[in-house]
């Protein structure tokens, strides 16, 4: 009987799915990651032998670390500390591109989602006022962790929308929301 061993095929499928998740999530944010580095980082963290690369960019390591924690440790409750850890992993240098950002804590300034060239930005959305972020996040975290009769796909979609509506961080809200949605869907609560 030819073909792959079932465990190898399952590991390869998981590796490919996680790689694709990370690549597509980053592309949404306008980031083009090195696919070989993403795949190698995931394989290394999962203990898979694929002949990994020696050097892996620390930003890729952070994205991989966040997604794997969200999906592999799905029985752990969501917490403020866990979210701060994910945020810190995404921005190990404390910068988003050229801009210094607050990392591993809720934003302390007002937030708008904008597009357009410098000096010609257009505001599409104004997030929750900074003075209300902690209160709104406490409500959100409590709701995410509670058992609910809501279908998991619907709960995941609501959680994603609620999180990005609060927009608690300077940057990385979309990536964390997508990782967190995977987290809640995997829980089955």
Largest sheet: 2 strands, antiparallel
Number of strands: 4
- Give the second-level CATH assignment, the architecture: Orthogonal Bundle
Helical/strand content category:
mainly alpha
Indicate the proportion of strand residues.
Answer: 5-15%
Mean of residue pLDDT values: 86
Uncertain segments are 185-189
C-alpha termini separation = 40 Å
Number of domains: 1
- As a percent range, the share of helical residues equals 55-70%
Q: Return the CATH topology.
A: Fic-like fold
Adjacency order of strands in the biggest sheet? 1-2
Radius of gyration: 18 Å
Q: Give helix and strand order, one letter per element, not per position.
A: HHHHEEEEHHH
> What's the tally of helices?
7
CATH class reads: Mainly Alpha
Net shape: globular
Can you say what the CATH homologous superfamily is?
A: Fido-like domain
Characterize the structure shown:
The protein is mainly alpha-helical. Helices cover 55% and strands 7% of the residues. The protein has one domain: Fic-like fold, CATH 1.10.3290.10. The strands form 2 sheets. A two-stranded antiparallel sheet has the order 1-2.
Task: Write a short abstract of this structure.
With 189 residues, the protein is mainly α. The protein is built from 7 helices and 4 strands; from the N terminus they run ααααββββααα.
Topology overview:
Elements: H1 6-28, H2 35-46, H3 58-72, H4 80-90, E1 95-96, E2 99-100, E3 112-115, E4 122-126, H5 133-145, H6 152-166, H7 173-187
Antiparallel strand pairs: 1-2, 3-4
Provide key terms for this protein:
189 residues; mainly alpha; Fic-like fold; two-stranded antiparallel ribbon; 7 helices; 55% helix; disordered C terminus
